[in-house]
Amino acid sequence: MAAVAAAAMKPGATLTDVGSVKAGPAEAMHAAAPAGVYVIPGHPIAGTEHSGPDAGFAELFENRWTILTPKINDDEAYALAVARLSSFWRAIGANVELMDEKHHDLVLAVTSHLPHLIAYTIVGSAADLENVTESEVMKYSAGGFRDFTRIAASDPTMWRDIFVANKDAVLEMLGRFTEDLQAMSRAIRWGDADTLHDHFTRTRAIRRGIVAAGQESAEPNFGRDRGKH
Amino acid sequence: MAAVAAAAMKPGATLTDVGSVKAGPAEAMHAAAPAGVYVIPGHPIAGTEHSGPDAGFAELFENRWTILTPKINDDEAYALAVARLSSFWRAIGANVELMDEKHHDLVLAVTSHLPHLIAYTIVGSAADLENVTESEVMKYSAGGFRDFTRIAASDPTMWRDIFVANKDAVLEMLGRFTEDLQAMSRAIRWGDADTLHDHFTRTRAIRRGIVAAGQESAEPNFGRDRGKH
Asked: Tens digit of pLDDT for each residue in B86-139?
């Protein structure tokens, strides 16, 4: 797709994208672009579980971060194109950060790809149980499961492509998570209450940081069920 | 605590609770109650990551489910006490379901306890990374991670007690989840796009069921960031 778009572009134009994985696709974009076209891969970290034009809303990018992964070079015209694209994102409300494309893929493996993989997995596990019905899972989902189903309702084709494209970073993060989950499992099996309490206390700081960074509403239940007011 | 409360109760009174695990605590309540006191353990499936009186709001129980786990017997007075307690919960907006206490613990292990364990774990894993900073995790959390941090900000003492009290059911569910996660990991490693796509498609049905069951808002981002309107 990048190749088709790139072939039609005139020198001085900017070629960007909004994909969730950067390293591989960026390489393809750089290879496909004619001389004089500024390739600046990008990724706005915003959105819901819904896809397509109807899923947009005016405040979608407000106070969210857009990551751009430009090449590092000393071309002044390229630097200007990066500044222009940054201004575009800022104009629609986003904050902009420049980042190495491989580092982007690692960061997103933690903040997005692994959470999606886990959510997809647990929702599948719950659906497969013999001793708990799907109806029970749905009715009593307000206990925490519900939040996982929202993430697991994201577009299957897009997420298949993300996991195939960002395999190495996802598997690295998954390895860390699995190791930590085994440690928690062991603490539960042996009734190691102190280890559990210490761990559960530590994770609250991250949440407070996210609220402080303006990436979350501190409202109870973030206004869920309050649409009517 | 149940023993102290029970000792002060007169015949004809009802002793209930709102704890997240039922089998063990219910046994203690039955043992502690004087003759003629109706012991009816209960659990409202509602709430946010916040605890204490200030975390309540008027609509907290509206259209949420409260599970009661009465003993099965043919005592008419006991049946009346169960009906009375059910009416109480309905009066403040909840739906009521009667359930065997062991089955309750298994259902909640899936819909609440395992999701909390996973959320606590991944948030801890993310905080421990050497190559991704905490600041990066916070800034780019809107990609999915944010939802896990909300769950992982729940009360550490309460959750420590839940995992100790519901050990068997949690470990059973954790075993299923880990098995399924290994299968996903393998599909990613081998680039098995079809397996990934099939799995990701299947989980959407559960989400639709939860929205249909009135346990979730279908609004984009469920009104997050829209409190101002």
From this structure: 999 999 999 999 999 999 999 999 999 999 999 999 999 999 999 999 999 999
Q: In total, how many domains does chain A have?
A: 2
Q: Do A22 and A108 have their domain in common?
A: no
Show which of residues 78-137 on chain A sit within 8 Å of chain B, judged by CB atoms: 97, 106-108, 110-112, 114-129, 131-132, 134-137
User: At A34, which amino acid appears?
Assistant: P
Report CA dihedral (B90, B94, B99, B103) to the nearest 10 degrees.
Answer: -170
Res A223 pLDDT > 70: no
Q: Does the beta-carbon distance from A222 to B223 stay under 8 Å?
A: yes
pLDDT for res B94: 95
B221 located within any domain: no
Cβ B160 vs Cβ A196: under 8 Å: yes
Query: Does the CB of B229 have a partner CB in chain A at under 8 Å?
Result: no
What is chain A's mean pLDDT, rounded? 90
One-letter identity of residue A151: I
Domain range for A195: 103-217
